[in-house]
Design brief:
Blueprint: H1 2-6, E1 11-17, H2 32-44, E2 49-53, H3 66-82, E3 87-90, H4 94-102, E4 107-110, H5 120-127, E5 131-134, H6 152-169, E6 177-180, H7 189-197, H8 199-203, E7 210-211, H9 217-222, H10 237-249, E8 254-257, H11 260-272
Helix pairs in contact: 2-3, 3-4, 4-5, 10-11
This protein binds pterin-6-yl-methyl-monophosphate.
Length: 287
């Protein structure tokens, strides 16, 4: 999995929520066969990693207990891993991560960046696996009240640096660390757009950066009807692809998406056009 972290090509993480209540795919993959089947399809569509989660992190969601979360994800991880599919476990609980790693998961995707469970660093260190440290300020029920920043990019950068420093102090190897700005987590739509616009300031931290815009509500708000009704999740795919490709062009290492095929295709186009860089300037004579 260290090869994956060092990968040059943009990495595509496919989302597989085994939950009844996630905002986009909640309830669709609660049955084991449906979940495994979807994981296999994500891989076939071009996912480098399938991200399995057993607890909804949408704003306002109630927490489930660790046993319920573990029971949801373990059978799915076992089967996907046995099929040779690289898996990340989307959890902020050390116990769940430990069980998932034992069941074959390769990466820990921790939306709390190690803040929610003091034992997570030990679990990740013992496993020697990559660890996604996402920017986070609090659990789903309280995150809306925590979306207050001076300069959101500077603040997220500082807080992510603190998570990285704590991980390094806990003995996590630098090459195992991936950072993530955590779009939508204690962030308003304005914050998400500001982070997207100034992503190079976070890429500059020097760690691979994962970007997760897929189907999030700020896209629904951008694409709202004339009467202000947000576009439903099913109509946010083109915007997801656009934001994901722009993030990669701005230096992101990977993107986390629900519809892998569309984003993988768009990234293939981006690669084929010679990896254009935002810093490239077009002079009059080149047109
Ligand atoms: N977003 C969600 C869940 N897990 N993990 C990372 N690293 N980054 C994210 O942006 C992220 C995440 C919420 O979306 P979902 O409910 O569709 O999974």
């Amino acid at each position: 999995m260290t090869e994956l972290v060092r990968a040059q090509a943009p990495v595509v993480m496919g989302v597989l929520n085994v939950t009844p209540d996630s905002f986009s795919d909640g309830g669709r993959y609660a049955d084991l066969d449906a979940a495994v089947g979807h994981g296999v399809r994500l891989r076939a569509a071009g996912a480098d990693l399938v991200d399995v989660g057993g607890e909804s992190t949408r704003p306002g969601a109630d927490r489930v207990d660790a046993e319920t979360e573990t029971a949801r994800v373990l059978p799915v991880i076992r089967e996907l891993s046995a099929a040779g599919i690289p898996v990340s476990i989307d959890t902020s609980r050390a116990r769940v991560a430990e069980a998932a790693l034992a069941a074959g998961a390769d990466v820990v995707n921790d939306v709390s960046g190690g803040l929610a469970d003091p034992d997570m660093a030990r679990v990740v260190r013992d496993a020697g696996c990559p660890w996604v440290l996402m920017h986070w300020r609090g659990h789903s029920r309280e995150m809306r009240d925590l979306a207050s920043y001076g300069d959101v990019v500077a603040d997220v950068r500082t807080e992510l640096s603190q998570r990285v420093d704590e991980a390094l102090t806990a003995g996590i190897a630098a090459e195992k660390i991936i950072v993530d700005p955590g779009l939508g987590f204690a962030k308003t739509a304005v914050h998400n757009w500001e982070l997207s616009a100034r992503l190079p300031e976070l890429v500059d931290l020097g760690f691979p950066l994962l970007f997760g815009s897929s189907r999030k509500s700020y896209l629904g708000r951008l694409l709202a009807d004339a009467d202000g009704t947000p576009r439903p999740t099913s109509g946010r795919e083109a915007a997801t692809i656009a934001t994901s490709v722009l993030a990669v062009a701005a230096g992101a290492w990977g993107v986390r998406v629900h519809d892998v095929r569309g984003t993988a295709d768009a990234l293939a186009v981006w690669r084929a056009t010679g990896r254009p860089c935002l810093a490239t300037t077009v002079r009059e004579g080149d047109r």
